[in-house]
Amino acid sequence: MYRVLAERTEQLLDAYLNRAKKVLVLDLDDTLWGGILGEEGWENIALSEESVGKCYRDFQKLVKSQKRLGILLAINSKNNRADVEAAFARNPMMVLALDDFAAVRINWQDKTENLRELSLELDLGLDTFVAIDDSAVERERMRQTLPEVTIPDFPPRPELLRSWFLKEVVYRHFPKYQLTREDSAKTEQYRAQTARRDLRAVVDFDAFLRNLEIDLKYHVDSAATIERASQLSQKTNQFNVTTKRYSPADITHFVESPDHHVVLLEYADRFGQEGLVGLAILDLKASELDTFLLSCRVIGRGVETQFLSKVEELLAARGCSHMCAWFIPTPRNDVAADMFERHGFEFLIAREDGSRVYRKNL
Description:
With 362 residues, the protein is α/β, with parallel strands linked by helices. 37% of the residues lie in helices and 20% in strands. It has two domains: 2-209, Rossmann fold (3-Layer(aba) Sandwich); 213-361, Gcn5-related N-acetyltransferase (GNAT) (Aminopeptidase, 3-Layer(aba) Sandwich), CATH 3.40.630.30.
């Protein structure tokens, strides 16, 4: 009991001396709501007054209460901006609004870079930031690169969100002993500030990736992966170069066909297993990449480069001298738009529908 009282006294002293944290930075997917927005759509994310969705809705209520107490809220999320705007505007269970956030970074760049930009925009030191993210990989990346940012561990189950947030985040980092009119207007004040110059610090991203100890396994033409392959083709919208949808029967046909390869990518790193997260379908007769996709859970770790290298290896082993590939744009797959240019493909032609054809010698 005495230890708890001592901790609480220290927290209140921090607040009194203005040493408490000032900015709460939040991830979105599986943090403010359940599920992956880009895959599920705003209608199907877990956010409701029952079951798991209630855990996330209650969490949003607590977050909003911190905004009323003068804590600045910010977003740091790997997502498509249009998808996020639609979710906040159209999902009736959303408690928070985009206007509740003093600053927002919704893009596909390194989250540490986003944190630096948020620091500049808000004109507050990174040591005043607390960043919440469900991904152990993202948390480790931020901790290694920006040790001044406070990054608490995330609870393993949604039903623990409320108690965890109060105990490990609010009481520990955002104690309030007094509320002023200025406190409750802070978000509007900071949002009105003009953006500062960009900060571009040199970060050894390659060393971070090596430290992750990424382990990739490939499953080629495996009947055991047919259901997952179909599921990935049906649900993956963001890093998906053609967005072709295939049923289990379609995948079975490709697996059994001598003119095709179906390749599933299995991912693990030192933080744990992500499972089957990538799918490639190769048309061996046409030397063409029919499908190439990755779950957004592993985007930004260089996985696509190694996966594509495996695809090229399989085509070369079947006597193919080149590979053709298509990029078919959709409202959600911008993150994959430069996939082929980045990997040495030659641009051949653009169609009227915006799709582009590429070729690479093997």
